[in-house]
Amino acid sequence: MKKLLLLVIALFLIGAGFGQKVTKYVPVNVSGVEQGDGYSTDASIRFGGLTPGDPNTDILQAWVVPSQGSTSGNTRCPGNTWRYQRTEYLIMPSEMAASGYPSGQTVDGIGFLIGTAGTTSQTGNLKVYLMNTPNTTYQLGTSWTTAGFTKVCEIAAFTVPIAAGSYTINFAGGDAPFTYTGGGVYVAWEFSNPVGTLGTGALVALCNSTGLLNGLYGQRSATSMPTTLAASSFRPATFFVNNALTDILTVTNIYTTEKAPIPFGIPNKVSVMVNNVSASSATFDLTLSINSTPPVTVTQSGLTIAANTSLVYDFLGWNPTYLQNVNVTATATPGAGENFLLNNTNTITVQVNNNLFSYCFNNVASGAYGYGTGSVIWASKYNMSGPGKITGANIYIYSSTAPNSSVGNTVSAVVLNSAGVIVAQSAGLLLTAGNVNAMNNFTFATPPVFNNEAFYVGLFQPTAAAAWYPMGYMSEAPQRPGTFYIFAPTGGVPSAAPPDVKWMIEAQVAPVPGTIPTLSQWGLILLGLTLLGFGTFYILRRGA
User: Fold this and answer.
1) Count of CA atoms in the C-beta half-sphere (13 A) of 542
2) How many of the other CB atoms lie within 10 Å of CB of 513?
3) What is the spatial distance between Cα 285 and Cα 301, in angstroms, rounded to a whole number?
4) How far apart are the first and last CA of the chain?
5) Considering only CA atoms, which of 192, 172, 183, 241 is closest in space to residue 78?
6) Least confident stretch, 26-35, 143-152, 360-369, 500-509
7) Which is nearest to 304 in space by CA: 282, 286, 288?
8) Is this structure's pTM higher than 0.85?
9) b (16+ CB within 10 A) / e for 149-159
10) Are 415 and 423 in contact (CB under 8 A)?
11) pLDDT by residue (tens digit) across 101-134?
């Protein structure tokens, strides 16, 4: 709800700065909105962590299928508007490993994430099944099956949650406990409500649509249980629950410039977000370590964080002197009674280079944003240490399919100073099938110079006949503050970008050439050299 409020505020600010153009703003993850039965047009983007107040506090709750902002109203998790629903999907071994869910432990509950609330609910019979698997692609076919599964839950009167946010289904009434043995996991669930009251406005689930092609098979019906399922790449954001492990602290994010240029981006500030998922305050030490040359280790001791709270802790910038790729690691010591520690540590990779600013070490897009048919600038903020000039930009340009394709439109890169004034703009780039959905290079004929000051590099999206979505982004949940923005096409005061995104915009930087001395300055230089030579000659003569 808090993120939705932030998005509403952002839209208000954009409207204030852009006049009537606010009506053209379309915050849609184009690669991740699944149209179809029960689809809701209210596709506000939400990500990540458990909603404060989730009943399963202090225990292990691991996101095994993380949301990356895509949405679906097609009962990818239990829905409120269809009497009969069946779904099966794969959680890959790599996703289980990334979640930190420990092998040899039971799965005692499952949770989902609702992006847009439904209108009224329904109550019916819910069954949940789990199965260990080594599969890396979905292999169960199009027919509903529970062969090889363990039925872990059957609730005769399950009321489908419809409020935005995460919720937990604690397993009860199943045939046997399920123990995760490593590898991947298949999830299957079915819901039936033959004669009870039916919900009205459909809830919209937050999904992951880019992690596994056709990784889910599901179907829904108003009259009977479906037996043939249809493929989809929209798996619901999913977390698993373990009641035996106590999880208190999680290092959720490391915020820094992930491509840091020497000397222009040095010192490179590092911030760490820590989340206390327990019902009590926790005291801990937080250590930042960087395996650079030379290595860096810094600890903040005796930190306290309140229950169900996330805080960001800042570390003074580090000063690398060698071009290298390094691991930046943050570790929180255990909270009192905490025995699940895998998520107490987080690591990211940072490239130390001599010509690029970027917040994205890799360039794998999660989705894209557009401004409908209107014009806008999407921009990232950087800080120049000492003097440097911005010679160009690398920007990920996205294209959806017709009728929202970016192909045929022309974009350009811009540089804005800290006051929001456009100080450089590249030549236009005509978008073709060969250069979309990729990083593109832009150059500035007259590179602007900055000296110990902030600046913005952005993508200029002009007006178009049809809505299009060219600005690629990567997911960042929660989003670091004060970094990603939206400007009017003429610059001015920026508005905050939509939550949980980081623009895929790199700034190319180069040294500022030395200034050529004037004639009078040359005279002083020559006089100084003459006097220096005479003084040296005099000293040598006296020494002789």
Assistant:
1) 5
2) 7
3) 4
4) 86
5) 192
6) 26-35
7) 282
8) no
9) bbbbbbbeebe
10) yes
11) 999 999 999 999 999 999 999 999 999 999 999 9
Whole-number pLDDT of residue 316: 86
466 C-beta neighbours (distance < 10 Å), count: 12
CA distance 257 to 497: 18
Q: Which residue has the tokens 């192909």?
A: 407
Report the distance separating Cα 420 and Cα 522, nearest Å.
38
What are the structure tokens assigned to 86, written together? 């069946």
Residue 287: is it exposed, middle or buried by C-beta count within 10 angstroms (0-12/13-18/19+)? middle
CA distance 495 to 18: 10
208 touches 237 (CB < 8 A): yes
Query: How high is the pLDDT of residue 211?
Result: 86
Annotate 488-503 with b (16+ C-beta within 10 A) or e (fewer): bbebbebbbbbbbbbb
What is the Cα–Cα distance from 477 to 68, expressed in whole angstroms? 9
Structural contact between residues 124 and 158, judged by C-beta atoms closer than 8 angstroms:
yes
- Identify residue 216 by its one-letter amino acid code: L
Q: Please tell me the total number of residues recorded for the chain in this structure.
A: 544
| Arithmetic mean of pLDDT, 518-525 | 45
Q: Which residue in 406, 340, 392 sits closest to 509, CA to CA?
A: 392
Extract the tokens encoding 193: 């409500």
CB contact at 8 A, 478 and 355: no
Beta strands in 371-444 (DSSP E): 376-397, 410-417, 422-425, 429-430, 438-443
Residues with Cβ < 8 Å from 62, sequence gap 6 or more? Answer: 99, 100, 101, 239, 240, 242, 343
Where do we find the tokens 């921009």?
379
CA distance 214 to 349: 30
Alpha-helix runs per DSSP H in 135-201: none
Using 50, 70 and 90 to split pLDDT, how confident is the model at 279? confident
**Amino acid 530: pLDDT:** 52
